[in-house]
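Hey L., structure's done. Input below.
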Amino acid sequence: MTYLSHILLGFVMAFISLIPPGMLNMTAVRTAIEKNKKEGIWFALGAAMVVIPQAFIALVFARFFADHPEIIDRLNIAGVVVLFLLSVVFFIQARKKFSGEGGKRKGKSFWLGMLMSGMNMLAIPFYLVLSSVLENRGLLKTEQPFINLFVTGVFLGAFSLFLTYVNFARIIVKKAQFIARNINYILSLLFFILGILTLIRFLK
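Output:
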């Protein structure tokens, strides 16, 4: 039962943490809208795959990071830079003519998902803090095989949430043309706001 609880804990934590519109789930929506649902699923899989080493590193090296907080500070700084760069990239992309028809453009969405997820420098600090809180409350064991079980749950939770956004993208195209046609502007603004908020938290 303890084994199953770690999988469920990882699943729930990853799913809930990704529900608010963010860099990865909104890009999954954009991919499904501008390409097709299949490409959106490939993006979701690529993004979720990278969550595995991110969560694993956070749990395995939790004590090392606690003794070297400067590493976390550097990751936070890198995360801010990445968010602002993505804001500029999607603003430029938004200037191009939008096409709501999917299936005509083939892209390497799986690798794009891995790349963007890998650029999320805030993932490791997030899972580091999360694992510390859960361990202090006696809900998580930071030892094997519990680490692998928790990470498995994190992957399943992240992939399920991304798939939910990919499926929701079809409704966006049909029911909310304004959002569909301005998804890149929305992403640009979202990344800019996330960058500002992250910078404010870092400077405190």
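Residues 98-106 have pLDDT under 50 and may be disordered. Residues 146-175 form the longest helix (30 residues).

-- N.
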